[in-house]
Structures are given as C-alpha cells and as structure tokens.
User: What shape does this take?
Amino acid sequence: MFSTIRSFLPKPLRDEKTVIPVVRLQGTITTSGPLRSGLCLSSVAQPLEKAFSVKKAPAVALIINSPGGSPVQSRLIFKRIRDLATEKEKDVLVFVEDVAASGGYLISLAGDEIFVDPSSIVGSIGVVAAGFGFTELIDKIGVQRRVYTEGEKKVILDPFQPEVPEDIEYLKGLQQEIHETFVDLVKSRRGDVLNDDPDLFSGKFWTGRTAVQLGLVDAIGDVRSVLKERYGDKTEPRLFSAPRGLFGRKAGLGLDLSGRKLTEGLGEDMISAIENRALWMRYGL
Assistant: This one.
C-alpha cells in the first residue's frame, strides 16, 4: 500500500532507489554432479533470467571468481548473458574477484565493462588437457589391459597404453581449434582496446593492474563503489542466487529431484573435486 501511495508523490519525495541486480558466478566451470558446486549453464540460467528481468534496472552486475574449466560451458554461459543483455536492453558490468582465468575470463567477456581488483588474476587464454600414464604400473603389478573396440581410434590417448605421437598431434589439433575460438571471441569483444603484447594469447596470466594495461579489462574497481558512483548513492545492489534443492547439499542421502541416486558417480565427482582444487591452486588460491 505504501509503495502505491509513494508513486503519486512528487519525484523528490519518493526516495526511490536504483536497484542493480547482481549475480555471483563462482567456481570451476564443469557439468553438474552431487559433489560439484561449480558453474554450468543449468546452474546459472535461472538467476541470470531473474536478474535481467528486473525492468527498471539499467544494468546487471556479474561478480566472477573462476579459474576456468569446460570451454563449452564457458561459452554457453557467455552466450546466455549476451542474449539476455540484448533482449532486455541492459548493460552488463563484470567485477572480477580473485581470479577470472581461462573459461572464467571467457565468461567475463560478456561484460560491456570489466572491473578488477589490483591483485586479481586475469588471463590464461589457452587450452589444456592433462592426464596420467599407468603403463609401467600395470607391468609391475602384472595386470593385463583388455579393450575391445570397433573403430581403430576409439581408445586413443588411453592412459593404460603407451602414448602414440600421431594421437598426440591429433589432440593438439583439437586444442588449436578451441584456442582459435577463444582468441576470436577475445578479439571480437575487446579488439579495439587490446595491447599488442606477444604473450597475450599464450596462456599466461597477469594481475588485475597489468590486465588493465594490456586491455584485457577496463579498470580497477569493486561492485559497490562503481555502482554508487555510476547510478547514485541510493543505488541498491540486489543479489540473485540459484535456489537450493531439497537434497542439494546432502549427497549420498537418497535421490535427487530427478530420481537419480545421489551416490551414483560419486567416485568420478571426487576425482573431479581434486582436479578442481588443483586448478585453483595453479593461481595460488
């Protein structure tokens, strides 16, 4: 009732606030799972949709803190943000916290402007594939590897078989294609401000302060300070988060909402959790 009455008051007496929706995109970029709390399109689609649907908001702010991960999920999230920004006619302001590297930086490219802390880690524009080789271990413990396939290349890069130079070259060809897609996206979004540093697309990463000089980001700034400076002291950042499922934090206690046993795939998810931790540690975090 009070809001209805306030709408009839003279503008100076309304004490209206400018609400800026904020969505936090944090974690490694991967597919979803019982022990995986990272980013994927399905986990961020709902809060993004709600944030961009705030009609009076002139912009949407994204807080990004990610060391990277899946190139596919990274690009899908990037595209959803840009599609919503075009559809809803809103500016997108990105604020990097600890790190926006690799896929995390790719997502940040969805911003019309990118702000960082001087000590943020930014960049790592490259592609990586890692694994282990177990051939000597198998020989030592006397295990025979038996694989039956239809298709001679079905088991290339099998960690239980010796490496084949031809297979490695094939993998590097795939990586080159993915890298080119990444580089093209960076140039399309920031080509007019990028520095001509020869290491820009080498996979190196930099502090936020240096990233400004390289043109990878726009300026030093934090979400509250920038929003209040741009939209006024009465600006209200409002966080939009994904809802927590009934069993979302109780892995191993029955079924999730799709009817799948939460214990299914836990071994794979535990390995993924270790890999994710290693990814964060690469940037000293």
